[in-house]
Amino acid sequence: MAADHELRAAAVVMVVVVVLGMVTTSSAHVFVGAYNTTCPNAEDIVYKEMTSILAKSPELAGPVLRLFSVDCFVGGCEGSILLDSTPGNKAEKDSPLNKGVKGYEVVDAIKAKLDAACPGIVSCADTLALAARDVVRLTKGPYIPLPTGRRDGNSSNAADVAANSPAPGATVNDLLTIFAKFNFTAKDLAVLSGAHTIGKAHCSAFSTRLYSNSSSNGGPTLDANYTTALRGQCKVGDVDTLVDLDPPTPTTFDTDYYKQVAAQRGLLATDAALLLNADTKAYVLRQANATSSDEFFADFIVSFVNMSKIGVLTHSHGEIRHKCSAVNPPSPPSSAAASMLATSLAGSLLFLLAGVLMLLF
Ligand code: HEM
């Protein structure tokens, strides 16, 4: 009786250990150097490719950095932004909010190089993450030691975009609410907005600020001289022209963005809105007056790495896409898998037979 009890207790402990083991191994975990053994040159390949792409087309820096943030904030950093729509499913990239998102071909080009060196090893999600990290370094920002090991998701839904991503007209409270969903603070918001130190925005993203006064559009104040200059760039109804987010140094990752925002020259309403919350305002003013970029760079590394961990898929979750714009086709069972299945079926049959024989005799 006692032995029976002990046996049952041991079985319970074993089940708990197995379940705990399953939970631990399936929980999201990315780490620096995840490809060190499986594709040792992966990070070098991305850096080399990104260097040559930006040497030829420096205007792709902003789009690639933005592409990564757009991926992470909707459903996690699992490459869902890269998926094309399919019959019956409108993907994230076709959401009206993502109309201006670009840089997909950069990810495809880098992924092709990675697959040539290590076929089927590096995910599209990691390709994008590493490319974005290298954009920061190549525009004179900090080197970000980036955890890798993300796998690719297999769904992408345009309807998720509006619900999860910060819209251009969002107030600072809207932004803080969205960030809080990811456990991000006001400081993270001020720091990550600093990515607008490079790149451009379409007139459509901010023109309401130019042609209606701040009390009617509910937005923060825009410097009068700057407004006049911007009206020269964006005529009424122009939605396509691109304007620098940080005109003094549009291709350099630095603290000038904060100087612009502090001087009421933040281009997007969401940039300017950083002055409407005490914490984000304090950060903007501190960086605007900083004599070095050290603090911003150190903060950006932390917030960027945290952003890069949102909703990652690891271990047995997700897949390594062959093509970044489409999920992998279902694969027929491999011969190894088929023989394992056959062995386990044969084992079960034998077990069943033994049971029947025992009952009979
Ligand atoms: C805080 C919430 C954010 C909002 C509301 C926001 C909004 C926007 C908008 C409206 C644009 C202009 C898009 C266009 O007109 O084509 C833009 C551009 C950009 N965003 Fe953000 N963004 C946010 C956070 C981020 C983050 C976290 C990053 C990266 C870490 C980022 C990086 C960029 C870059 C680099 C561009 C320039 C893109 C280009 O040159 O094509 N943004 N953002």
From TrEMBL:
Its main location: secreted. GO terms for cellular component: extracellular region. InterPro entries: Haem_peroxidase, Haem_peroxidase_sf, Peroxidase_pln, Peroxidases_heam-ligand_BS, Secretory_peroxidase. It is found in: Secreted. Substrate binds at P166. Gene3D superfamilies: 1.10.520.10, Peroxidase, domain 2. PROSITE patterns: PEROXIDASE_1 (PS00435), PEROXIDASE_4 (PS50873). Keywords: Calcium, Disulfide bond, Heme, Hydrogen peroxide, Iron, Membrane, Metal-binding, Oxidoreductase, Peroxidase, Pyrrolidone carboxylic acid, Secreted, Signal, Transmembrane, Transmembrane helix. The chain crosses the membrane at residues 337-360. Heme b binds at H196. Ca(2+) 2 binds at T197, D246, T249, D254. Ca(2+) 1 binds at D71, V74, G76, S80, E92. Disulfide bonds join C39-C118, C72-C77, C124-C324, C203-C234. Binds 1 heme b (iron(II)-protoporphyrin IX) group per subunit. Binds 2 calcium ions per subunit. Pfam families: peroxidase. The keyword Oxidoreductase applies. Residues 1-28 form the signal peptide. It catalyses: 2 a phenolic donor + H2O2 = 2 a phenolic radical donor + 2 H2O. Residues 29-328 form the Plant heme peroxidase family profile domain. One of its GO terms (biological process) is response to oxidative stress. Its cofactor is heme b; Ca(2+). Removal of H(2)O(2), oxidation of toxic reductants, biosynthesis and degradation of lignin, suberization, auxin catabolism, response to environmental stresses such as wounding, pathogen attack and oxidative stress. These functions might be dependent on each isozyme/isoform in each plant tissue. Belongs to the peroxidase family. Ascorbate peroxidase subfamily. This is Peroxidase. It comes from Oryza glaberrima. The lineage of its organism: Eukaryota, Viridiplantae, Streptophyta, Embryophyta, Tracheophyta.
